[in-house]
Amino acid sequence: PFFVACTAGSTVRGSFDDIADIVRVCRSYESRGDDGLERSIWVHVDGAWGGSAIFSSRPSVRRATRVDQVGLADSFTFNPHKMLGAPQQTTAFIVRHRHALRDSNAAGAKYLFDSRKNGAAYDLGDLSYTCGRRTDAVKLWALWKYYGRKG
Predict the structure, then answer these.
(1) How many angstroms separate the CA atoms of 150 and 60, rounded?
(2) In this structure, how many other beta carbons lie within 10 angstroms of the beta carbon of residue 44?
(3) Gap between the Cα atoms of 73 and 78, Å rounded
(4) pLDDT by residue (tens digit) across 53-71?
(5) How confident is the model at residue 129, as a pLDDT?
(6) How far apart are CA 25 and CA 75, in angstroms?
(7) How confident is the model at residue 146 (pLDDT cuts 50, 70, 90)?
């Protein structure tokens, strides 16, 4: 396999996979082929419903949800509108590999994305296949700013 998905709060049952065990198994099957190419398995954690527990400071919540194991995966997603009260449709997709989204989605359309402009490195438009600059981060930031870490 090239992709394995773990669940951090399934929609139907609210179950949380043991991410560390799944990552350990996946990493044991990674290898370098006879052709010299690395064979790796991308591990993703789908936390659409329960992933927002990552913001909890309560040890019992962190232990039950295994959110501390999310950092072992290659990517993680969560929807703050499902548990944190963020405006409808707020989604975060986080990847461990710095240039993975740009390498996968960049259109390199020079008429849209000029690397010479001020702040070009922060232009997220070329990181998605739609070339959009979604405002999800602003919605999450405003929610966090209003309620604070303990809100």
Answers:
(1) 16
(2) 16
(3) 14
(4) 988 889 999 899 999 999 9
(5) 61
(6) 17
(7) confident
Give the pLDDT of residue 59.
92
Could you read off the pLDDT of 111-143 as tens digits, one per residue? 777 778 888 777 777 666 666 656 777 888 888
Strands (E) located in 40-133: 42-47, 75-78, 92-95
What is the rounded distance in angstroms from the CA atom of residue 34 to the CA atom of residue 121?
38
d(CA 65, CA 26): 21
Contact 80, 86 (CB under 8 A): yes
Q: Where are the alpha helices (DSSP H) in the chain?
A: 19-28, 59-65, 80-83, 100-105, 136-147
User: For residue 32, how many C-alpha atoms fall within 13 Å in the half-sphere facing its CB?
Assistant: 3
